[in-house]
Amino acid sequence: MDQERYILIRDFCQGHSLDEQFVFELQKVELVRIVEVGQDPAIPHSELHRLERMVRLHRDLDIGPQGLQAVQHLLDRLERLQEELLQLRRKVNRYE
């Protein structure tokens, strides 16, 4: 694995003044994917945006991992609906 494409959990948590256990709790509810880089747990850069969003929601709104799972489900559903709406608008625009 290429270390440049991952951020170590300890580095992420130090930078965000966050307990590492919180990230592992997010993994348990399948909100973040953790991989091993060498012998250290790390997060792929592709997961970083999602993790940072979860940290903000946790801190700002005091939402726990199970609540964050529900929020993420709703955000994913909203994104799919927005994509579907965009596709439908494109189809309608073709016939105008």
Note the gap between the termini.
50 Å
| SSE ordering | EHHEEHH
Q: What is the name of the CATH topology?
A: Multidrug-efflux Transporter Regulator, Chain: A, Domain 2
Query: Are there runs of 5+ residues with pLDDT below 50, and where?
Result: none
Q: What this model shows, in words?
A:
This protein is mainly alpha-helical. The protein has one domain: Multidrug-efflux Transporter Regulator, Chain: A, Domain 2 (Orthogonal Bundle), CATH 1.10.1660.10. 67% of the residues lie in helices and 11% in strands. Strands 1-3-2 form a 3-stranded antiparallel sheet. It is elongated and about 55 Å long. The mean pLDDT is 93.
Give the helix/strand layout.
Elements: E1 6-8, H1 9-15, H2 20-28, E2 35-37, E3 40-44, H3 45-61, H4 65-95
Explain briefly what this protein structure is.
With 96 residues, the protein is mainly α. Helix content is 67%, strand content 11%.
Descriptive keywords:
single chain, elongated, three-stranded antiparallel beta sheet, 96 residues, mainly alpha, Multidrug-efflux Transporter Regulator, Chain: A, Domain 2, 3 strands
